[in-house]
Amino acid sequence: MDKTLDLKSILPNSMGKLHHAYCLEGRREDVLNELREFLENVLKFKTKGNPDFYFGDFDTLGIDDGRLINEMQSRKAVSMTRRIFIIAAHFITRETQNSLLKMFEEPAGDAVFFLIIPSASILLPTLRSRMMIVNLNRGAENDETEKSEKTANLFNAKKFIKSGVGERLAMVKKISDKIADEEASRSIVADFLNSVEREILNESGTEELKRKNLFIFQEIDKCRNYAGDRSPSIKMLLEHIALMIGESAIL
């Protein structure tokens, strides 16, 4: 279950009682500072000059990065009872997530993972299920609420699929303009595509319609993957979906 708490209230104060994997949602710098403080002051785990500590900072976590982390976690602790891996990323490609499933399900016995991302919604359900989700966005709660109210219509998936092609393309332009300079733009796009997918699934109704709409689900999945590239064209990806929905059986 997702929880909105601080680290001291949810993480145990003993290294031996840590869960093997945590997903920490929130602003990267804020979460990282709080986590380092917790490790250093509560668990007495040094994060500087410690061979049993790893920190990786990624814009997009790709397959090669995942393989390297997987290789490192297979090694035994050198000086501590546990090894700590902190992985901060704005986005994780689907291919990489699939490659990390076994690692997060059965890490080497002494490894503990902390994944810092803007939103757990960018994760595959299979990967989410292997971690404890902790929402640390509380500091920006008021800002996020105001932002959500202002952009509710803009990111309205139901309105998007029900509109004509011209209206959808106009929405795409507004969306891409709005998030072009935002650090977590890819996770925002992933959230939006997830919502569009759910709406189409809900509107499809019968199994026959779901089968007829299979192609649009496949296209949405492709766009989610492409959104994880290092320099994706968010506008182009969303325009593609806007056009493909015009051929969907739900309309």
Overall spatial form: elongated
Structural class: alpha/beta
- The proportion of strand residues reads 5-15%
The biggest sheet, with number of strands, parallel, antiparallel or mixed sense and barrel status, is: 6 strands, parallel
In sequence order, what are the helices and strands, one letter per element?
EHEHEHEHEHEHHHHHHH
Helix content: 40-55%
Straight-line N-to-C gap: 35 Å
Number of strands: 6
Radius of gyration: 20 Å
Nearest-integer average pLDDT: 81
User: Number of helical runs?
Assistant: 12
Strand order of the largest sheet: 1-6-2-5-4-3
Low-confidence stretches: 139-151
Kindly describe this structure.
The chain is of the alpha/beta class and 251 residues long. It has helices at residues 7-10, 28-42, 63-73, 94-105, 125-128, 141-151, 157-162, 165-179, 185-204, 207-212, 214-226, 234-245; strands at residues 3-4, 21-25, 53-61, 83-92, 111-117, 132-135. It has a 6-stranded parallel sheet, with helices on both faces. Helix 4 links the parallel strand 4 and strand 5.
